Amino acid sequence: MTSNDLFHFGHVIAFALILGVDLPAYYAAKLVSGENTAPELRLIAARVVRWSNVVSSGALILLMGLGVQIAVDLGVYRVTQDIAMTITWTIILVWFAVWLASEILGTSALGNRLYTIEVWVRVLIGLGNVYDAIVGFMGTGLIETNWLALKVMLLGLVLIVSGVARVRLRPVREALGRINPLSAQWRNWDMVTGNTVAAALKRARPMVHMTLLMVLIAAWMGINKSW
Fold it and tell me: Are 2 and 44 in contact (CB under 8 A)?
């Protein structure tokens, strides 16, 4: 198996992970918002939410780097200097590290700060993708085909919309962070917390479904290339 085959394999797996775990995570979070839900079930759902979000968010970050690498290898994304890919992967890995640290540190002060930084990085990279796609359509950018420009546009919008969703889901993250399986306090899930989580999930619902739809279209485009 060549390195290019490995990149393609990783790209497909990343798409599969995003499509396979985002909705279960969302509806698990919705489940734990109910005040009358059994404490044990809330704890299980909270763990599903945490690890599903970890997997899908990490997969989305790696998807971006793998996508650029494959496009360069296929000759549909023009890179004039070898260092460009080194810079690209450095940005991706730093982004990945910030995201991972925010997950490990949870709802601590530093964890919340890194969470906010990751959201901004996500949105800014998404805006960069949209810009690349627009100049690609105009024939003046690095993208060589309109097919790829459209896919880059979709993934850029995915990053922007998912960033907004992560902001709207922050109350869910904070509520789940207070569930401690080693303490009797994790059983406390008052009406105020439940209503706050339910409201956050309702605000994020269009974003979650929109993101998955765009990822699904981008995945379909990936297996139906125009050349």
Answer: no
**What residues does each domain of the chain span?**
3-222
C-alpha 68/C-alpha 75 separation (Å) is: 11
- Stretch (H or E) spanning 137: helix 109-137
pTM of the model: 0.84
pLDDT, one tens digit per residue, over 86-110 is 899 999 999 999 999 998 888 888 9
C-beta separation of 172 from 49 below 8 A: yes
- Closest-CA residue to 101 (of 136, 54, 59): 54
Residues 6 or more apart whose Cβ sits within 8 Å of residue 95: 61, 118, 121, 122, 125
- Cα distance between residue 224 and residue 45, in whole Å: 36
Whole-number Å distance between alpha carbons of 103 and 47? 13
